Amino acid sequence: QVQLVESGGGLVQAGGSLRLSCAASGSIFSINVMGWYRQAPGKQRELVARISSGGRTIYADSVKGRFIISRDNAKITVYLQMNSLKPEDTAVYYCIMSGQYDYWGQGTQVTVSS
Fold first, then answer.
1. Hey, what's the torsion of the CAs at 80, 85, 87, 90, to 10 degrees?
2. What is the pLDDT of residue 1?
3. Cα–Cα distance for residue pair 108/96, rounded to 1 Å
4. Which of 62, 66, 71 is nearest to 95 (CA)?
5. Mean pLDDT of 29-39
6. Whole-angstrom distance, CA of residue 81 vs CA of residue 67
7. What is the Cα–Cα distance from 20 to 31, expressed in whole angstroms?
8. Contact at 8 Å (CB) between 27 and 4?
9. Under a CB-based contact definition with an 8 Å cutoff, are residues 3 and 106 in contact?
10. Pick from 14, 66, 16, 6: nearest CA to 37
11. CA distance 67 to 58
12. Per-residue pLDDT for 13 more than 80?
């Protein structure tokens, strides 16, 4: 059984930084894309960033220049470094790993106070 375990969320003041991690365990093979989505209260889940197996990255316009996604294939882990956080970044953040199937993390709360 595959599990994605997220960590690193929490409460931070505007302008601060957080680093999210998402590690996979279990029988997981041929992961191509890893990414992060977020969902704020009353809003739809949206893509934050994604990274391919070749290292190509895509970012939402709202986080470009502030967030950095990276991955460690040996550890089957994806990271999201979040800098210059804003109150509008407040959401539950979910990691995803996609290969033959899509695997989702349980979500981690990020709260940015003004």
1. 10
2. 80
3. 13
4. 71
5. 93
6. 5
7. 19
8. no
9. no
10. 6
11. 11
12. yes
Q: What are phi and psi of 69, to 5 degrees?
A: -100, 140
Do the beta carbons of residue 34 and residue 89 sit within 8 Å?
A: no
Indicate whether 14 pLDDT > 90: yes
> Token pair of 112, please?
């940015």
pLDDT at position 100 is 87
At 28 the pLDDT is: 77
Query: Distance (Å, rounded) from C-alpha 2 to C-alpha 49?
Result: 22
Q: How many CB atoms lie within 10 A of CB 4?
A: 22
* 34-47: b (≥16 Cβ within 10 Å) or e: bbbbbeeeeeeeee
Q: What are phi and psi of 87, to 5 degrees?
A: -55, -30
51-98 pLDDT tens trace? 999 999 999 999 999 999 999 999 999 999 999 999 999 999 999 999
Q: Quick one: pLDDT at residue 29?
A: 76
The one-character DSSP state at 88 is G
Q: Give the residue ranges of DSSP H helices in 1-114.
A: none
